[in-house]
Structure formats: structure tokens, C-alpha cells
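[Meeting: bench + compute handoff]

Bench side (C.D.) handed over the final construct sequence. Compute side (W.E.) agreed to return the predicted structure before the next meeting so the bench team could plan truncations. Sequence as handed over:
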Amino acid sequence: MEWIVLITLLVAAEYFWLAVLVGKSRGETGIHAPACTGDEKFERVFRVQQNTLEQLIIFFPALWVFGYYVSATIGAGLGVMFLIGRIMYARGYIQHADKRGPGFIVGSLATLALILGGIIGILLELFRG
């Protein structure tokens, strides 16, 4: 499970980095809290952070369930896929909203695999006993 712990912390670090980008963007654009609108570039950076937060509520439990009931190694690999997908998503979205799709697909496929695999893993465990 060490790999699952490592991926959890790497994804948390990625989210921290996104929060730093939002703060930096606030300074560059003059959009002071609590405002969240007024500059398109800031809004894209802010949406990347918020959209990633929305994904984490699904990703983290799916990662841990999959890691425990299926495979920590495969789960960590899917976690890396999610991490890379979110980097692609952030880079694309910050450039232009239309460029966020590929990263979203990569991250979403990883999360979907974790969810489905975790469900199958727990069901097999329940019916094995």
C-alpha cells in the first residue's frame, strides 16, 4: 500500500500547486478574494483548481478501495495516469478552455477504472466468504 500512499501525496501536492497558481494569478490579474470573475485567464486557472477538487472527492476513495481490494501496484499505476491527466488538463485549460478535453479524458478513464475495479474487487471479496 506504500505506492497508494505515495500517489495520494503526489496528487495532494499537485492540488497544492494548483492553489499556488490561483494565488499567483490573483496577483497578476488583480482579482482579489473573494472575487472569482473579471479576467478570463484568472477564471481558467481558478476553474482548473475547482474542477480538480471536484475530481478528488471521487478519485481518493476509488484509489484506496482499488489498492486494498484489487492491487496496490495497478492502483498506483492508474493513480499516475490520473496525475498525468490532471497535468494535461491544467496545461490545456490554462491555455484555452477548448484544450482541456484530452487531459479530462485521461484522468476520467483512470478514475473510472479505479471505481469499476474497486467495485468488482469488493464484490469478489464479499462473495468469497
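W.E. noted at the follow-up: The mean pLDDT is 97. C.D. will use this when planning the next construct.
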